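Listing S7. Sequence submitted for prediction.
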Amino acid sequence: MRVDHNGADDSERTVRLGWPPRTRREMYVKIMWIGVWLVFLASPIGDLVGGHHTGAATAAGSVGLAAFVGAYLTLVFRNMGRPFSAPLVISLTAVLGVLAPLLAYTLGSAWLGLFVYVSVACGATLPLRAAYWAVPTVAVGMYLVGLHSNEKEARGLFLLVLLIGFAMSGVGQLVRTTIELRKARATVAQLAANEERLRLARDLHDLLGHSLSLITLKSELAGRMLPGHPDKAAQQVADIEQVSRQALVDVREAVTGYRRPRLAAEIAGAQVALTAAGVSAELPADPDLAGLPEESEAALAWALREAITNVVRHSGARRCAVELTRHQTLDGPVVQLTVEDNGSGGPGTGPGNGLTGLTERLEKAGGTLDAGRFKHGFQLVARVPAGTARHVGSGA
């Protein structure tokens, strides 16, 4: 997550579609968006304060308008964050459908704008097929009510009620799709975690099942031989020691394999991290890692992870390019990873603990690290020994 100089990250500056407000700023943005849509209330409010009705009619109109606005805001803006149940949506829509024609019919044409909100509510909250029927019904109802007071104004609002209702049906469908995608992403992540646990369980069973069974069998055999045949029992104990040592070696190799990062996985993770931070990313589409030693690949993967972490957290960059190439040098073929961004490079003047540790890791793999500012931003270049000399892909 990229943090700017004021301490605000990108997720705090962007209001997520289909999500309820997480911060006070998001709440203010949502309220401002609501305020823009409330412009159609200017006519009813002006009619109330203009003294065109009796005191009883003005009081009744004020109560009806307050109830209408409360039902509308509850239905549309609350429902788009955390959807209500279907009966509650239908009930609130029915309240709007009753209040709008009642107020417009009894108080005059200045109240016809309430049908715009009814159309928005139908389009944003009802299922798509139901909205396609409800929006034209609202427009026809508005026109029929307008015949009683001002047919010309009703005719002018007819097209607006239709268009805004159908437009909000598209927005509502987009919000629902976003919510479904968010749930699907969480489900996929959970399934991936479960699959990884199952794979780990299978690998541990394959690694240790036979060895532990053999150790148990030989331990029982040594126990039975110990009183009468100590020399044979000692041989069984030696076998147990050998099997247990081999099992320990197998477990260590397996753990090393789990912990060793893969460059392809780090590239995919970099794409996700940069996109989430609002950074334009240029990454190798399909890098060819054939012949690259595992130790070299792991070192490059660590280098990419550290570089992307610095870009996202500290640099303030808006663009990041990753390039992976092979070069022939006097010391033999090398694979070079280049990460460039147009940010400031982060706070401080010298290398941090991350770059220092990364330099040591690359040196153990026989590689080198160069990192520093250049004319357009910050650049990190990591080189490791390779097998064959051929191009492995570019993010350019």
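Caption to Listing S7: primary sequence and predicted structure tokens for the chain studied. The mean pLDDT is 79. Strands lie at 280-282, 319-329, 332-341, 368-374, 377-385.
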